[in-house]
Amino acid sequence: MSRVFTSIAIACPVGRVFAYVTTPGHWPEWHPSSLAVRGATDHPLAVGERVTEDIRVAGVRATAEWTVRERDEPRRWVIEGTVVRGGGVLTYTLSPTPVGALFEREFVYTLASPLLRLLDPLVIRPRIVAESRRALARLRRRLEQPGR
Fold it and tell me: What digits encode the pLDDT tens for the residues 126-148?
């Protein structure tokens, strides 16, 4: 198992951040790995709801099937995903700050093949970390835009 943790402060109310990040239709707007989403994409997902996402993670294209496992609005949201070569759990945790919200994103994943597990610390995980950092910077810019 590998873990990627990133966080960012966003000058936006916690509830607004939660609603935005838990609505799959927004994912391609802010996460560079999210190419397209299908299914329940137009609202914040509840426990048990599913969505299909076309992704490119660490340069590899795949399709992920996500299921919401936990939702404690506006503090915590957990989804579990499966792909051909592995799977993972994505957890969003939000906390109020004096100027908005602290958004924390944790991605814990497994890779099915021994070769991928060997490449993970050298190639795959560093790319996922970089993608996650870019994603959170894009998220902040998007949510802090006037009129959003």
Answer: 999 999 999 999 999 999 997 66
Q: What is the largest CA-CA distance in the chain?
A: 48
Query: What are 109's two structure tokens?
Result: 């994943």
Contact 67, 48 (CB under 8 A): yes
75-98 pLDDT per residue, tens: 999 999 998 778 999 999 999 999
Amino acid, single-letter form, for residue 120 = D
Whole-number Å distance between alpha carbons of 120 and 140: 28
- Give yes or no for a contact between 41 and 24, defined as CB atoms under 8 angstroms apart: yes
Its sign, for the CA torsion 126, 30, 13, 24, is negative
Query: Using an 8 Å Cβ cutoff, are 107 and 88 in contact?
Result: yes
The CB density around residue 7, as the number of other CB atoms within 10 Å, is 13
**Do residues 98 and 13 touch, judged by C-beta distance below 8 A?**
no
What's the pTM value of the predicted model, to 2 decimals?
0.94
3-state secondary structure of 116: helix
Reduce the DSSP state of residue 18 to 3 states and report it: helix
